[in-house]
Amino acid sequence: MPTTPPPRTEAKPLIVIVEDEAELASLMAVHLEKAGMHTQICNRVQHAFKFLKRNFANLVLLDINLPDQSGFTLLEELKAADISVPIIFVTGNVEETSKVKGLDIGADDYVTKPFSYAELVARIRAVLRRTEAKTDLHVTKNVRLSDEPFDFCGARVIPERLEISFPDGVTLKLGRKELGILAYLNGHPGQVITRKALIHSVWGIHADVKSRSLDQYIVKVRDLFQEHGISLDAFRTVHGIGYIFDPRGVSSEGR
After folding, report:
1. Mean pLDDT value across residues 236-240
2. Where are the alpha helices (H) located in 137-231, listed in sequence order?
3. What fold is seen in the domain 143-245?
4. Do domains 14-136 and 143-245 have the same CATH topology?
5. In this structure, are strands 192-194 and 235-238 parallel, antiparallel, or unpaired?
6. For residues 214 and 127, what is the distance between their CA atoms, to the nearest angstrom?
7. Burial grade of 183 (CB within 10 A; 0-12, 13-18, 19 or more)
8. Which three-class secondary structure state does DSSP give residue 194?
9. Quick one: CA dihedral 69, 206, 126, 147, positive or negative?
10. Which of 37, 38, 83, 198 could bond 32 through an S-S bridge, CB–CB 3.0 to 4.6 Å?
11. What does DSSP assign to residue 10?
């Protein structure tokens, strides 16, 4: 008899708890894990920053007053490092100015102590739903389906349909990563672009992508344009660094 496959289980979100009160952090972790989440406790700002640089997390619960630095500082450091993760401040600071500052610099929500764990779980789920809805339109880290079409060396790139139209009348489907590369180059004309910057832009800062893999995508882009009679002389390799897209011919790099 055919066996029935086991039901699919949704991946549990990872919640990073940045809280220096050990007992409270442990209690929060217990309640969140009972609600079907994974947790990671960090009791210092720098501990949390190092963890988030190396690991993906779905959300951060962040105290404001921490022994080494403030939670505001951590949020600013994450933004500067291009680490995008939803933040909920969880703090005993009930002053409205503190709440306004936290939301102004990019936090997704603000919960004051004492709080009920049922409310905390509900707030987390609400932020995760909003975040998921925002990222549904993302094709790559730097391109959304809602982005406007743009011209690239005579071809028309249409993110909404993942298509590229050539002057010879041919319209083809465009791979996501190729689209991300073209969009990034189009947005940075005349600038030397390092391989690392291009990888982080298209794949994300936590992606484990080697330069060789990026080079293979670049070859695919060049071949695609060449097949339709378009020269990409304006898109040049800068040896030892990366690339430059120089449609106006203002730079000598890569020549």
Report:
1. 92
2. 176-187, 195-203, 211-227
3. Arc Repressor Mutant, subunit A (1.10.10)
4. no
5. unpaired
6. 33
7. buried
8. strand
9. positive
10. 37
11. P
First-to-last alpha carbon distance for the chain, in angstroms, is 67
| pLDDT tens-digit map of 27-81 | 999 999 999 999 999 999 999 999 998 888 899 999 999 999 999 999 999 988 8
- Closest of 32, 36, 10 to residue 118, by C-alpha: 32
Domain residue spans of the chain = 14-136, 143-245
**Counting beta carbons within 10 angstroms of the beta carbon of residue 147, is it exposed (0 to 12), middle (13 to 18) or buried (19 or more)?**
middle
Cα dist from 222 to 194, 225, 229, 233, whole Å:
18, 5, 11, 10
Write out the two tokens for 25.
């952090």
How deeply is 172 buried, as exposed, middle or buried, from its count of CB atoms within 10 A (0-12, 13-18, 19+)?
A: middle
